Amino acid sequence: MQKQSTKPSNSNCDEKDHGVQFKFEYKYCPMCATEMEWRHVFGARRQQCPNCGWVHFRNLKVGAGVLAERDGKVVLARRGINPGKDKWCFPSGFVEYNESPETGAVREFKEETGLDVEITGLLDVVYYSADFRGAGIMVLYGGKVVGGTPMPMDDVVEVGFFSRNEIPAGDEIAFESNRIALEKWRNGGK
Ligand SMILES: [Zn+2]
Prior knowledge:
Elements lengths: L15 E2 L2 E2 L15 E5 L2 E5 L6 E2 L4 E10 L2 E7 L8 E2 L2 E3 L6 H13 L1 E14 L7 E13 L7 E7 L13 H11 L4
The site of zinc ion (ZN) has 8 residues, from loops.
């Protein structure tokens, strides 16, 4: 069993897997406050508490967003914070523990743009790792605006409506998953 001293949670960990740099380790067990150890448990190297046995499973974060149309134009939000500050993306956010991805996507859309959106289908599920907040998956839905008044709120500074000819250039789009989905939409898909 390999053992390694724990490091502060914000240090650059030397453990890498598939190019993903893992962060957010626990120095102490969040259940009983014993110092955590590195062990090989459940088929991988993980942190486990030597006192109560609690295992730190590093789950993916789950985000959800909607590629929504209004009058043939796609709704994009310009971000006021990093990652992707000043760039455009689909209104989206992290799914809360007590809601479904669909519910989270609709809620985030309303919170960021003031618009009510109705989901019409699933577009894509994308894995990402280049995010300082941790690796995750983005669940991207297609949808349409059904009400509300556009107004940038929360971490969004501008709400924009873009026709297929008007969508921002690739380097003005915040996330790779968004760039790919927008390109498909531009070419007539959804
Ligand atoms: Zn413990």
